[in-house]
Design brief:
InterPro entries: ParD, ParD_sf, Ribbon_hlx_hlx. This is CopG family transcriptional regulator. The chain has about 100 residues and is an all-alpha fold. About 65% of the residues lie in helices and about 0% in strands. The chain has helices spanning about 15-25, 30-70, 75-90. The longest helix has about 40 residues, at about 30-70.
């Protein structure tokens, strides 16, 4: 097991109530387990956010490279609206 370090945190009462209820209901053996589980979830979510941000930045860089290389089209909102109308009209209306 990894080295353990004790940390003291301060939480709002409503969060403390939820944590203590999870322990009392037997979902977790201790408050520490609840916090560790929450931190594991946070780490995973944060990792996904970082990956998504990197992908977004890569998309932006590709777009900027396209602009710099002249690979762009004139923005035509009317053509976009017309294309959308054709797509909607082509869909089946039966359930």
């Amino acid at each position: 097991m990894a080295e353990i370090e004790r940390v003291t945190i301060t939480l709002p009462t409503d969060m403390t109530v939820v944590i203590k209820a999870a322990v009392a209901e037997g979902d977790y053996a201790s408050v520490s387990e609840v916090v560790r589980d929450a931190l594991r979830d946070w780490k995973m979510k944060r990792s996904l956010q970082i990956q998504e941000l990197a992908a977004l930045k890569a998309d932006i860089d590709r777009g900027l490279a396209d602009v710099a290389a002249g690979r762009v089209k004139k923005f035509d909102p009317d053509a976009i609206i017309e294309r959308g109308r054709k797509l909607i009209a082509g869909r089946s209306t039966s359930a």
